[in-house]
Fold Integral membrane protein.
Amino acid sequence: MRTGSEPTTARSPLRMRLWLSVWGLIWAIAGTTAFAVVGRTGWAVACGVLWLIVTVDLVMVLRHIRQGPHYQPGRDIPPYQPPRHHQP
C-alpha cells in the first residue's frame, strides 16, 4: 500500500542482512566445531541449531535479492487515499 509519505531515497536492508548472516554463519560454524572438539555437547547442539537458523535466513535473503526490485509507483501516481468508513 502506498501512502505517499515514503522517502524517495529509501534503500533495502537486504545487503546488510546478507553480510550479517554470513558473519553469523561463520561464528555458528566455529562455535559448533569448537564446542564439539572440547566435548561440550549441549553448546555444540545449540550452535548447530543457530547454524541451521542462520542458513535458512541466508537462503531467504538471497532469494529476495535475486527477485530484484518490485514494482513501485512513480511520482506520476498519486498517493493512495484509504477508504473512509462512516460510523452510523
